[in-house]
């Protein structure tokens, strides 16, 4: 086959794809999807490479990025604007999530095939923990989070890579996000309710469902401190410690030295 023939074949294939897309849009109109992400003024640069590669060719209608310290205000305002504009699905992102186009496609595919799922979150680990995912099973404790094929029902999740049906958000009473202290008016204890947990509590009260997709496992950026140490045999090695663990240890050493 000559180069000219190959180019002609490719052009014909592209035209067939365009015709097929037109037919599909008539039979199954395109779903209006937008992404929402709240970011601080300074953040994780590694995220942006995966963000661009994963989303550039998805054909989403809008990408909303909000800035500022009050991430919940930004996300809530973005939800309102996108719902008013007629978006049907909203994909939330975190600026410290690491994901690929395959992750996004997998989430979209399951969401489209399961209309009973009102929100679908990727499986994402907590920072500083080797075992605990960002999900609360609550009354679904009989389910186990494993790498199976079925979506797992849960009561709370995250916004790192999560699809939500816009009409289900719209039926929830406002405010959608709220900080609530514990019974003593303090935010120091785990009895407080943070804005993300408040949202998922209200989501459940509105009769909406939430699932985790165990086949879509995304990353979670976290800061590590690399330090040199001498092992038991006297060899110099490097270890990598989560920065909170490093600070806790060094603060303890300082306190013990001052005692």
For the sheet with most strands, the description reads: 7 strands, mixed
The stretches of 5 or more residues where confidence is low (pLDDT under 50) are 23-28
- What name is given to the CATH topology of the largest domain? Spore Coat Polysaccharide Biosynthesis Protein SpsA, Chain A
Number of strands: 11
Number of helices: 7
> How would you write the strand order of the largest sheet?
2-1-3-7-5-8-6
Structural class: alpha/beta
Helix content: 25-40%
The CATH first-level class of the largest domain comes to Alpha Beta
Rg over CA atoms, rounded to whole Å, is 23 Å
Distance between the termini: 83 Å
Order of helices and strands: HEHEHEEHEEEHHEEEEH
Mean of the pLDDT scores? 85
User: What is the overall shape?
Assistant: globular
Beta content comes to 15-25%
Q: Examine the secondary-structure arrangement and name the CATH architecture of the largest domain.
A: Alpha-Beta Complex
Provide the number of structural domains: 3
The assembly state of the depicted protein chains is: single chain
Characterize the structure shown.
- There is one protein chain.
- The chain has 259 residues and is α/β, with parallel strands linked by helices.
- Helix 2 crosses helix 4.
- Strands 2-1-3-7-5-8-6 form a 7-stranded mixed beta sheet.
- The longest helix has 25 residues, at 3-27.
- It contains 7 helices and 11 strands.
- Mean pLDDT is 85; it is low at 23-28.
- Helices cover 37% and strands 22% of the residues.
- Helix 2 links the parallel strand 1 and strand 2.
């Amino acid at each position: 086959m000559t180069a000219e023939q190959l180019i002609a074949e490719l052009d014909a294939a592209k035209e067939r794809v365009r015709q097929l897309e037109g037919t599909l849009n008539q039979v199954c109109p395109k779903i209006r999807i937008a992404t929402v992400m709240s970011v601080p003024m300074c953040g994780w640069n590694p995220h942006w490479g995966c963000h661009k590669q994963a989303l550039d060719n998805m054909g989403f209608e809008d990408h909303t990025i909000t800035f500022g310290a009050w991430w919940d205000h930004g996300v809530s305002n973005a939800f309102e604007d996108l719902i008013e504009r007629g978006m049907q699905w909203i994909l939330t992102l975190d600026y410290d999530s690491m994901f690929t186009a395959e992750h996004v496609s997998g989430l979209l595919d399951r969401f489209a095939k399961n209309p009973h799922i009102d929100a679908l979150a990727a499986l994402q680990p907590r920072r500083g923990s080797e075992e605990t995912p960002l999900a609360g099973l609550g009354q679904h404790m009989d389910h186990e989070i494993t790498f199976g094929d079925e979506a797992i029902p849960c009561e709370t999740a995250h916004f790192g890579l999560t699809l939500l049906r816009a009409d289900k958000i719209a039926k929830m009473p406002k405010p959608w996000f709220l900080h609530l202290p514990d019974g003593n008016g303090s935010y120091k204890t785990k009895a407080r309710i943070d804005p993300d947990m408040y949202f998922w509590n209200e989501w459940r009260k509105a009769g909406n469902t939430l699932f985790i997709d165990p086949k879509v496992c995304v990353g979670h950026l976290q800061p590590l401190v690399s330090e040199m140490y001498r092992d038991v045999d006297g060899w110099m090695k490097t270890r990598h410690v989560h920065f909170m663990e490093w600070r806790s240890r060094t603060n303890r050493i300082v306190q013990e030295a001052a005692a």
